[in-house]
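Worked example

This section walks through a single chain of length 302. The input is the sequence exactly as stored; nothing has been trimmed or padded.
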Amino acid sequence: INEFKAEAIKEIILNTRNELLNKNKYGNKIIALSGISGGIGTTTIGMNMSDLLSQNLPDKNILYIDLSTTKAVSNLFLQKNPLPNKTIVDLINTSEFHLENNLQNGLSKIRENFYCVTGIQKHIDKEYIEKDVFISKLLEYVSNSSDYFNFIIIDLGLADASNLKTTIYDIVNEIWLLTEMNLPHISKVKTFYSLMKRAGLKEKISFIVNRYDSQNAISVNDVTSILNMTSGDKIQFDDYKIPNDYKTLGKCWNYCELASQSAKESLFIEKLEDILKKKEFYCSEDKKSKEGFFSSLFKKSK
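Given that input, the structure is written out below as tokens.
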């Protein structure tokens, strides 16, 4: 009983946060993706960027975690499984990062250097993942797994100020905030951006403008004016833009396929790769090694 008192859990969360921040000063990255509204493309971009990182950085290990609580569909695209038996709740309750054990409890292997934890499906789980006990266990798991994964991509779904999400925003290296360039979305961005600034998280935010060429899009000048940004901040809405590529993504969604696998030459993938290169996650020459870290590690252990 004493172990799960609020005071003890708070100490665990703060200690784990410090471990994560210190550990990730040395090249590894934890990135949170949040969408300013549902259906903005957070999961599509999160899954595809994770797959692109694993393809282009075969000597790095990638972990994609789906923590979205609305319309979790990553299980269909990554596991081809409409109702997984195990979820992140089962995985976190194993209390340790142990690859073989985790693969039986919610962790899935996509390829040698790409692993994922797909979205929850039960309403009862949505309540549990907001509890302090779950959050402390999640932080401990992320801390332990960051010894093995160079990139941890956390899909948070809809951007809000819940306990779980604010804790994740605090410990990650980057926050990718997805929006569209129209008034309903930009008005929500203004509120959320204001909250993030007050929390001291402004420098972590990158705005990813999805479907920037939609018919009702407003100008960058109008956006920065609404958000009360300086002229120097305009670059945030010019650098990371993805056009509407429904022709590609509509087909991928019909067959539950990743565009990074079935439509590698598409406009969507081209622009997503541009973002990853601008952020210097990789460049065209990076795809050299054919053997991932786990492969070499297991060979040594044998």
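What to look for: The two ends are 42 Å apart (CA to CA).
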